[in-house]
UniProtKB/TrEMBL annotation, chain A:
PANTHER family, per the entry: DIMETHYL SULFOXIDE REDUCTASE DMSA, TRIMETHYLAMINE-N-OXIDE REDUCTASE
Topological category with respect to the lipid bilayer: Peripheral membrane protein
Gene3D superfamilies according to UniProt: 2.40.40.20, 3.40.50.740, ADC-like domains, Dimethylsulfoxide Reductase, domain 2
Origin species: Adlercreutzia caecimuris B7
Protein name in the entry: DmsA/YnfE family anaerobic dimethyl sulfoxide reductase, A subunit
Span of domain 4Fe-4S Mo/W bis-MGD-type: 57-118
Keywords per UniProt: 4Fe-4S, Cell membrane, Iron, Iron-sulfur, Membrane, Metal-binding, Molybdenum, Oxidoreductase, Signal
Primary localization class, coarse: membrane
GO cellular component, one term: plasma membrane
Molecular functions per Gene Ontology: 4 iron, 4 sulfur cluster binding; dimethyl sulfoxide reductase activity; electron transfer activity; molybdenum ion binding; molybdopterin cofactor binding
Superkingdom field: Bacteria
UniProtKB/TrEMBL annotation, chain B:
Keyword Transmembrane helix: no
Cofactor: [4Fe-4S] cluster
InterPro entries in the record: 4Fe4S_Fe-S-bd, 4Fe4S_Fe_S_CS, DMSO_DmsB, ET_IronSulfur_Cluster-Binding
Residue numbers spanned by region Disordered: 176-206
Domain of life: Bacteria
Record's protein name: Dimethylsulfoxide reductase, chain B
Organism: Adlercreutzia caecimuris B7
Length: 811, 206
């Protein structure tokens, strides 16, 4: 907000215009590329200028900071310290490659979030039983004192391993959330966590295959002949005009590539792009791949040169010596010469996937003969009870056909993009505690942490936890309940106040998670404080967006940093914590110290805060994963033990050799199909015959924006159900139904649609849980996590939130 | 000059950014949309002897607001003579001084463009962002579209650039009102009057 200026405008015209048309009628402008600039009175600003009253109108830049995995620019029209309406980036000539960072429908409603009557305004302490949602206003002094004293008490009594910083992604701005870890690490650290709720299975599985998880930028489909998307639904998850959805559209218009979408739902991505939709039973993508491999191997369509040069474990010739002749290779397994003596024929896969054998054969031949072919997966296939196997298996289509490391191809992983040379964030220093858990297993660590082991529960850095979680810091996250698996279980764990003894939580609303806070603090949104963000998944054009606070803080809301500064002061660490800097000072420091050195062409900090957007094209044209390896595998080996693509992973088997797996959990050295616990073939299907899968919904990003009324009206929370399943249950479109399993019940309106495979129902994730937790616990908010499990996946110990069995009946 | 909208059905993902950007600028409540996105689709499922499924499902999105028609039936039917067509821009506008909020226009329009705002008992609808257009800008929905599937301008130029298709299901035949609309149909588009599909998102339309 560097420039403000009195701006004359007819108050009468202004008010008249705003009655029907909002302030957009009064002040639309092309001004404001630099700073918080005065808007011009172009457009309907007419009226007698003699009859004027001073109206100060500013246009301020900021970004939509939720975790959809793209980042978008917003331009706020601010009058009298209130946001009146919001534009997106409409600067420049919008040529692709230097295009505008246009926000989606979610960002376009941010004014209703900012100005929402239900926003948290004051610090509060819990007065009822934990989880009841009863709070009482307290002073900031009392809040700070309570946090500091409880934190000290818990550190003294249980040590830093009992402290946990909850997984959270509601605020993505490099200069904001990191302060929490900075303070915690200054005080001995905390129990670490690994893996996210987004991508834990694929992130931890792909290193065994490739040495890392990497993919081409999806703008590279401009070079493809065929694009096959397994559960990649960017058009609903990352809808913005700066991210993958826009790059897919531009790239596909350029290449004219054929697109095949493999998904249980006929998604919006399928609707707009697919030449062919392969409707598949959830959780069985790997079986489809196995059968494609069978066709490619038996019809000799694989890329032998690629397999022999770049891979191990394909056939006996490249197996570890001691395993040769044992039937353990990929070819042996696929062709039925392995231990299970089952050829993975299209007919074998048809019975599992419900995809006709002829369709599978045609798919295999098409993938094998289109050069280059881009195989991408979304993060849906991996967010399952067999997600680690599925993620690796899908990549095999790229490996078998030699499409790795080239333009127009891909690794088979989820799409990536070009990034700015440096990622920047608040220096949090190292966590002195070396023990960590999988993010998803935190309820176990609260409930019985001292029983959690490395070999059974995935504890890392120690054989077992020494102490349960006793304190949770939760900044702008909803994983306490709403976004975690099995809300009713989490409720039981958290409402026992003898287990986790203290929870401090920041948010802008009384989310379902916030109801479990002991101290609940009213946060400022990212755009209400200095903010800067780096692009994520942005094809071949990376960018930064920067802005200053669009308005002054309202009510008693404060930044995370200012609160933690006061806590640090109480702990006698203020100087060390702040290093004498305010929010803008930190923003300047991290930008200048982290972003600038690797990028000589970048604007200075002052320039960045004036120009707000900085874009940078991928110097190579397109980001191609493992290109160096493909070009020269000797000089640029992968980070696998062999330096090659490890189709057979001895490293995986060595890692899990002494693990105790739960019944039904499977980890295979090969990237092949494994059934999942609570999958379609689970005996539980007799009681709950429908598979329930979640999906990332257009009307929210996870649970963010989930309470915005206009978004809810435009994107109602509904259960997708095929007409055949509906007819069987005497259900018609628009009915209210109950979705039930042993973990809970959701009441929801049903959308009967041919856009989903029979036998499967689907529910957008992130809707706000709404149940009487001291009563029937029926969730009338439509939150899928009332029905999901808290049992982790086999290897990553991660969230299998798309793997659920349910029954549906009219309410 | 007569202005019109262009809609590219090969690009529209149905994301509704146009709808929500319009609602922000015009400060509309949940119950009034000046622009709507229709999800039109259909298809049947067949189980084979092998237990596998085949289907012919299709779906596509259509974003539509007021088309400021050359033969506006809202204007023709308004009992108060409150609706007029601007000679300079072609914009079809309702005069709030004359409008009594009877809803005849809303019922007459085959695009569902005019609504009755029950709080003020007036007909309200898209004014093609007259303020922005007067300032040489495009309507907010067009500037908002993440996929660049919308455009706006001189209808003659739009037709010269994009052709003269102005109808597809679930929109009515263009002959009903002569809309100032140009459409690039999506690959799976069905003709106006099609009965093989249906609007699949009726609860999202308002």
């Amino acid at each position: 907000m560097t420039i403000t200026k009195e701006h004359s405008l007819s108050r009468r015209t202004f008010m008249k215009g705003s009655a029907l048309a909002g302030l957009g009628a009064a002040a639309v402008g092309t001004a404001g590329l630099f700073g918080c600039a005065p808007a011009t009175d172009s457009g309907a600003a007419g009226g007698g200028l003699a009859d004027t009253a001073a109206v100060e109108e500013k246009v301020c830049w900021g970004h939509c900071s939720v975790n959809c995995e793209t980042r978008c620019a917003l331009r706020f029209h601010v009058v009298d310290d209130e946001v009146k309406w919001v534009e997106t980036d409409n600067t420049g000539n919008d040529e692709y490659g230097d295009h505008q960072l246009r926000a989606c429908q979610r960002g376009r409603t941010i004014r209703r979030w900012l100005n929402h009557p239900d926003r948290l305004n004051v610090p509060m302490k819990r007065v009822g039983k934990r989880g009841e949602g009863k709070f009482e206003e307290i002073s900031w002094d009392e809040a700070i004192e309570t946090i500091a004293s409880e934190y000290r008490r818990i550190l003294d009594a249980y040590g830093p391993e009992s402290v946990y910083v909850q997984y959270a992604s509601g605020v993505n701005a490099g200069n904001i959330g990191g302060f929490l870890n900075r303070l915690v690490n200054m005080n001995g650290g905390c129990l670490g966590r690994y893996g996210s709720y987004s991508s834990a299975q694929i992130s931890q599985a792909l290193p065994f295959l490739y040495g890392g998880r990497a993919a081409n930028g999806n703008s590279d489909v401009a070079n493809s002949k065929l694009v096959v998307l397994f559960g990649d639904n960017s058009c609903e998850t990352k809808m913005s005009g700066a991210g993958p959805t826009y790059h897919y559209m531009q790239g596909l218009e350029k290449s004219g590539a054929k697109v095949i979408v493999v998904d249980p739902r006929y998604t919006d991505t399928a609707a707009v792009h697919a030449d062919q939709w392969i409707a598949i039973r959830p959780g069985t993508d790997a079986a489809l791949v196995d059968a494609c491999a069978y066709v490619m191997i038996t019809e000799d369509l694989v890329d032998h040169d690629f397999l022999s040069t770049y891979c191990i474990g394909y056939d006996d010739a490249t197996m570890p010596e001691e395993l040769r002749g044992t039937g353990a290779s990929y070819v042996d397994y696929i062709t039925g010469k392995g231990a299970d003596a089952t050829p993975k024929t299209p007919e074998w896969a048809a019975a599992i996937t419900l995809v006709p054998a002829a369709t599978i054969e045609a798919l295999a031949r098409e993938i094998a003969t289109a050069k280059p072919c881009a195989i991408y997966q979304g993060k849906g296939p991996q967010r399952r009870g067999n997600g680690e196997q599925t993620a690796r298996a899908i990549c095999m289509l790229a490996v078998l056909t030699g499409n790795v490391g080239i333009n127009g191809g891909n690794t088979g992983s989820d799409l990536d993009g070009y990034y700015m040379p440096a990622w920047f964030g608040v220096p949090a220093e190292d966590n002195p505690v070396e023990v960590s858990i999988a993010s998803f297993t935190w309820t176990d660590a609260v409930d019985h942490g001292e029983q959690m082991t490395a070999t059974r529960d995935g504890v890392r850095g120690a054989d077992k936890l020494s102490v349960p979680i006793k304190m949770i810091w939760n900044y702008a996250g909803n994983c306490m309940t709403n976004q975690h698996g099995d809300i009713n279980h989490a409720h039981e764990v958290l409402s026992d106040e003898s287990k986790c003894e203290f929870i401090v939580l920041w948010d802008t609303f009384m989310t379902d998670s916030a109801k479990y806070a002991d101290i609940l603090l009213p946060d400022l949104m990212a755009v209400e404080q200095p903010n800067i963000i780096q692009s994520e998944y942005a094809g071949n054009m990376a960018y930064y967006i920067a802005g200053d606070a669009i308005t002054s803080p309202k009510f008693e809301r404060r930044t995370l940093y200012s609160v933690l500064t006061d806590v640090a002061d109480k702990l006698g660490q203020k100087e060390a914590f702040t290093e004498g800097l305010d929010e803008m000072g930190w923003l300047r420091r991290i930008y200048e110290e982290q972003a600038l050195p690797g990028d000589p062409g970048a604007p200075t900090f002052d320039e960045m805060m004036e120009q707000h957007i900085y874009k940078k094209q991928c110097p190579e044209g397109e980001h191609v994963a493992f290109k160096d390896f493909r070009d020269d595998p000797e000089a640029n080996p992968l980070e696998t033990p062999s330096g090659k693509i490890e189709i057979y992973s001895q490293a995986l088997m060595d890692t899990v050799a002494d693990w105790e797996l739960a019944e039904g959990d499977l980890i295979h050295p090969l990237p092949v199909y494994c059934p999942e616990a609570e999958g379609y073939a689970d005996p539980l299907a007799e009681k709950y015959p429908l598979q329930l899968t979640g999906f990332h919904f257009k009307g929210r990003t996870h649970s963010s924006y989930g309470c915005i009324e206009v978004l809810k009206a435009a994107n109602p929370q509904e259960l997708w159900m095929n007409p055949l399943d509906a007819e069987e249950r005497s259900i018609v479109d628009g009915d209210t139904v109950r979705v039930t399993n042993d973990r809970g019940t959701v009441e929801i309106v049903v959308k009967v649609t041919p856009r989903i495979i029979p036998g499967t129902v689907a529910m957008g994730q992130g809707a706000w849980h709404d149940a009487d937790m001291s009563g029937d616990k029926v969730d009338r908010g439509g939150c899928i996590n009332t029905l999901t499990s808290h049992r982790p996946s086999p290897y990553a110990k991660a969230n299998p939130q798309h793997t659920n069995l349910v029954e549906v009946a009219r309410a | 000059m007569t202005y019109g909208f262009y809609f590219n059905g090969t690009r529209c993902t149905g994301c509704k950014t146009c709808v929500l950007a319009c609602k922000d600028k015009n400060d509309l409540s949940e119950s009034i949309n000046f622009r709507n996105v229709y999800e039109y689709g259909g298809g049947t499922w067949t189980k084979g002897n092998d237990g596998c499924w085949t289907n012919d499902t299709f779906a596509y999105s259509v974003s539509v607001a007021c088309n400021h028609c050359d033969m506006p039936v809202c204007m023709a039917n308004c009992p108060q003579g409150a609706i007029e067509k601007d000679a300079d821009t072609g914009a079809v506008r309702s005069d709030p001084e004359k409008c009594i909020g009877c809803g005849t226009c809303a019922n007459a329009c085959p695009y569902g463009a005019p609504k009755v705002d029950t709080e003020i008992m007036k007909s309200v609808k898209c004014d093609m962002c007259a303020d922005k257009v007067a300032a040489g800008e495009k309507p907010v929905c067009v500037e908002a579209c993440p996929l660049r599937a919308l455009d706006f301008g001189d209808i003659d130029e739009l037709r010269a650039t994009y052709g003269d298709v102005a109808e597809l299901a679930p929109l009515p035949a263009a002959s009903e009102t002569s809309p100032n609309l140009v459409i690039t149909p999506p690959a799976t588009a069905k003709p106006a009057g099609d009965t093989t599909g249906a609007v699949l998102n009726p609860r999202e339309i308002s």
